[in-house]
Amino acid sequence: MSPTTDARTLTVRISRGTESPQFSTYAVPWRDNQTVLDVVTEVQRTLEPTLSYRFACRVGVCGSCAMTVNGKPRWTCRTHVSRVEEGGTLTIEPLRNMPRIKDLVVDMKEFFDKWRKAGNTFAGTATRADPPALISPQTKQRKMADAAIECINCGVCYAACDVVSWDRNYLGPAALNRAWTLYNDERHADRKGVLKQATAGGGCNSCHTHGNCTSHCPVDLSPTGSIAGLKRNALLQFLKRD
Length: 242
Description:
The chain has 242 residues and is an alpha+beta fold. It has helices at residues 36-47, 81-84, 109-117, 140-146, 156-160, 162-166, 173-183, 191-198, 212-216, 223-239, and strands at residues 5-16, 22-31, 66-69, 72-75, 89-93, 100-102, 105-106. It contains ten helices and seven strands. The longest helix is centred in the C-terminal third of the chain and has 17 residues, at 223-239. It starts with a strand and ends with a helix. Its cofactor is [3Fe-4S] cluster; [2Fe-2S] cluster; [4Fe-4S] cluster.
């Protein structure tokens, strides 16, 4: 059975363009259980075929549909209109802190470059000939790594971060969250190297602990906690030096 249609109309303001974007306003039917991604898709299919945006899975797995909705970065496929509309209006923009390609599509190259700069490539100590490492899920290190490991690099935390917006050298919460998981992974060959890169210029010490990354994370991770862990362990390492 098709979803029921509300008699009301939803007003949708979408940021369009590239270097000098402007808002275009559209009117779409207000449907039950409608997500923000449903709304953007309806605008593109029925009103504005040149509208550019990203999406893939539509079920909250890939994170590619992230946009700014009424001022906050969100996964649009998991955001119901009824939770975020303001007076029957949605204002939709691309993610902050990343260059716009067109309309709602951003260039994430800088985001991933910083992710690599934080030393986030896993380097194992074992070879293919070695048996699988036996890692107890009950160890303190494994629990800390597990608490942060579900990040899928959607960029929502990066877009929510105020420090990123004014310090372009800051690596950002996603990159540092990943560094924390590697630092706690006993299979990683260069844990000290990860900590060194994560605490270098633009690293974890640039974080002001506003907590925006944690409050906006769609999968309830705490990059704020991961960054605090990096700071704490860097300080302990410094104090233990001869």
